[in-house]
Description:
Blueprint lengths: L2 E7 L6 H14 L4 E4 L2 E3 L3 E3 L5 E3 H10 L10 E7 L2 E6 L2 E7 H7 L4 H14 L2 E5 L17 H7 L3 E6 L5 H10 L3 H6 E9 L3 H15 L3 E6 L24 E6 L4 E2 L5 H4 L4 E6 L2 H4 L4 E4 L1 E2 L2 H10 L2 H10 L4 E4 L1 H5 L3 E4 L7 E4 L6 E17 L14 E14 L12 E3 L2 E4 L1 E2 L7 H12 L11 H17 L4 H10 L2
Parallel strand pairs: 1-9, 1-10, 2-9, 3-6, 10-11, 11-12, 13-15, 13-16, 16-18, 18-24, 19-21
Antiparallel strand pairs: 4-5, 6-7, 7-8, 14-17, 19-20, 21-22, 22-25, 23-24
Helix pairs in contact: 1-2, 1-15, 6-8
Amino acid sequence: MAKVLMIQGTTSNAGKSLVTAGLCRIFRQDGYRVAPFKSQNMALNSFITADGLEMGRAQVLQAQAAGVEPSVLMNPILLKPTNDVGSQVIVNGEVLGNMKAADYFRYKKKLIPDIMKAFHTLASQNDMIVIEGAGSPAEINLKQDDIVNMGMAKLAQAPVLLVGDIDRGGVFASLYGTVALLEQDERRMVKGLLINKFRGDEEILRPGLSMLEELTGIPVSGVIPYLHLDLDDEDSLSERLDGHKGQGLCDIAVVRFPRISNFTDFNALERVPEVSLRYITSLRDFGTPDMVILPGTKNTMGDLKWMRENGLEARILKFAAQGGPVFGICGGYQMMGGQLEDPEQVESGGSMRGMGLFPAQTVFSREKIRGQVRGIFSKVRGIFAALSGKAFSGYEIHMGKTSFLQPVFPLSDLGGAQKENCYGSYVHGLFDSPEIAATMVKALLKAKGIDASPETFDETAYRERQFDLLADGIRGHVDMERIYQILEEGI
Length: 491
């Protein structure tokens, strides 16, 4: 069976996901078969595996760092929030149903057999498993029946490294306070403390490290610097959504819905040097974009209502009427139709008028359509005509079927729609194929009278380089000899 190590954090966004990915990369570089594991993930950024099952993208990223195919075994439970008090519960890659938070809290212990079956299967196939926790192990209101932090560490008999984020301040208090709130047997399982996202002179920090070790009785195993990396983010806490990259020749505005999902769909566009990609939430953010993107969402009707109430819908409709290109993906595509129907109360229930950019109707149902896909753009009209005949790949993941009340031109052999400069597709990852992003940006620049040929982007090679930089950053600032010793000794 595999040796096991668990990464927990004092807060959300402390860096657990990337530390886990970095250790997976290091162990792979050192010749071990390694896999990531997270018993329960809460995120709207999900992925469809080769066998058509749904899992969190954070574990996909970690699997890529480990050089292995993503498997739903790495994330047996995925919670996708549908509103502030409830989530869609996905077990072993398939929808179990929607639950309110209180109902799930009472139910979740029944999922331990699913968690352990997945964990033991992975452990039998690998030399090492790196487990990621969620949030903080010191959520004292949630500790009862925990299945993702110390509860998971006990089930897996995993020694723990506790990560604190110094960039936001208060790292000593958060590390000490977290340890202090653990039970005595749980404290013994914490074998090392990691300080993450450090900027500055470590010598100035050193007296605090000594005091922290004295107070907790746990050694500080590393101080990881703030690493300037470009890797896919897990959820809406991502700093990527807070601003945009410089002032490029081409301005792309992505609507940041309250329930935005799979925003990683647009990273390939953002990485084109000529592009400034912005996430917008209000009319004052709108500016003068060259293209507007309506992304995926876990609540199409709720987020369309939000956009209608804050005025963004009317502004986007005006933009489209003036010939501005609007591109909808998944939930954003559904919004662009004329009517939304939810007879089974999958989302909000009832009927709702859509944006009317396509003569289409979407009817939501409890059946989730999911799968990896490959397709070819049809004869594309309008500004993106140069996409015609180009191949793409990605995955579909949606609840609802879209039908057309009048004939429309399909966007590809997989369906979708196009009308004038409005385009829609159910395919996530549509822009990731090597030529697609560059072709689209070239077309947008040409419409502005700018003759430029953006380079095609090798996403895989770029991502591999980022993983190596992540591993270098951790290896250079963490006591890896001590980490291997912890793996050998266990708890």
